[in-house]
Write a structure and sequence with these properties.
alpha/beta; eight-stranded mixed sheet; 14 strands; elongated; binds adenosine-5'-triphosphate; binds iron/sulfur cluster; binds magnesium ion
């Protein structure tokens, strides 16, 4: 079938964030930490980033926000926001995007809030600067926002300093600040990681509501695959600075095609909380900047063959929205190899076995 879609067919939602072939280096250009990362987030869509510690999730978020740390820089690639190329946008223009169009929430709200100022004064400051509201208008809007993010007695929270609030309340406050100017995109990097399960579930509901009510696009990083499954529409799997698989969340979780994704899912035991055995992925990911020909997962992959190490491996399209970076992705025999990526060996892990790197403890504990 070809030709134009019928006039009444639904249009795809607008692309809010586009990252294309992003290469990021660390140590002032000496080592590559992200290698050709591409991903998109559309209006009203929640896209999850997963992968072991050090795989490049935070650098991707920071690059998308143009807040890379010193010595870290974009070497190649493009970043677009609502169709506009923002890769080389000057800092002053970025200031206008931050808060007004792109909100961000990180794991540790205390490092982003001034400990000496009340929540109300910090929130009203943002509203006065970014939305040019009067003091009275900003105050009214701040109470409205604190209420919208589920803080009971918002007026009381308004007058409190960060130290007087619990972790969940602080994270809600950060979300209130992040959405205060009605952004099109929210970037949440481990925003729920430090919270207990009940509060985490409430924050997830809040993000879902914001998506539903405001059509917010969300880039959401978590080590917790159960949270990713609950919240996200699509998931992007990172390994050693590359995207190794991406696709609709149910498809990735039910039918992962890349051996690393399979290993990650086995570790997480998604959907089966009775099976909480600690499984490990043997071996270590390559050092950042390591020059490797072929698949970066080959050293740890139970399915590796000679062809995996001869040339760089492109992503293979597996469906309308599903891709995986593996030479054996269409090999029927591969479906049985994931069982080899198991080592239910809590003893080895707790003994700190050098031969077996436990994936993030949080992943393992699910
Ligand atoms: N400021 C920096 N200077 C040097 N290297 C860095 C810097 N920030 C990150 N890196 C390196 O870049 C790689 C990717 O880091 P990143 O923080 O994106 O990982 P991550 O996937 O977010 O990990 P985690 O799950 O632990 O948060 C890592 O190898 C890390 O050591
Ligand atoms: S390309 Fe080879 S080494 Fe890499 S994941 Fe696929 S089978 Fe394993
Ligand atoms: Mg990180």
């Amino acid at each position: 079938m070809s030709g134009n879609p019928p006039p009444d067919s639904p249009q795809p939602p607008d692309e809010i964030l586009g990252i294309e072939d992003l290469h990021v280096t660390v140590h002032h250009g000496a080592a590559a930490a992200l290698r050709g990362v591409s991903l998109t987030v559309h209006a009203g869509e929640i896209v999850g980033l997963v992968g072991e510690s050090g795989s490049g999730k935070t650098l991707t978020c920071r690059a998308a926000l143009s807040v890379l740390p010193p010595g870290v820089g974009v070497a190649r690639g493009t970043i677009t926001f609502a169709g506009q190329d923002v890769t080389d946008l000057p800092p002053r223009r970025w200031e206008r995007l931050h808060g007004s169009h792109i909100g961000a929430v990180f794991q540790d709200p205390t490092s982003y809030l001034n400990p000496n100022l009340t929540v109300g004064s910090q929130l009203t400051e943002v509203l006065r600067v970014k939305r040019r509201l009067t003091r009275a208008q900003a105050r009214e809007k701040a109470i409205e926002l604190l209420t919208a993010v589920g803080l009971r007695q918002a007026w009381r929270v308004f007058h409190q300093i960060p130290a007087e609030l619990s972790g969940g309340m602080l994270q809600r406050t950060m979300i209130a600040i992040a959405i205060s100017c009605d952004p099109e995109l929210l970037i949440a990097d481990e925003a729920t990681t430090a919270l207990d399960v009940t509060i985490q579930a409430e924050i997830i509901e809040l993000i879902k509501d914001l998506r539903d009510q405001r059509g917010l696009a969300v880039l959401f990083v978590s080590h917790d695959l159960a949270v990713i499954r609950e919240l996200c529409d699509r998931v992007v799997v990172f390994y050693a600075g590359e995207v190794v698989e991406s696709g609709p969340v149910e498809e990735i979780i039910e039918r992962p095609r890349h051996p690393y994704t399979r290993a990650l899912l086995r570790v997480a035991s998604v959907g089966d909380f009775q099976r909480r055995e600690l499984e490990v992925i043997p071996g270590q990911p390559p050092q950042v900047g390591a020059r490797i020909t072929g698949c970066r997962f080959a050293e740890r992959c139970p399915a590796a063959v000679a062809a995996c190490r001869t040339a760089d491996i492109a992503l293979t399209r597996l469906g309308t929205a599903h891709e995986a970076r593996c030479v054996r992705v269409n090999d029927p025999a591969l479906a049985t190899t994931s069982a080899a990526v198991t080592a239910p060996a809590p003893a080895a892990a707790s003994a700190g076995s050098a031969a077996a790197t436990a994936v993030d403890p949080e992943l393992a504990s699910r």
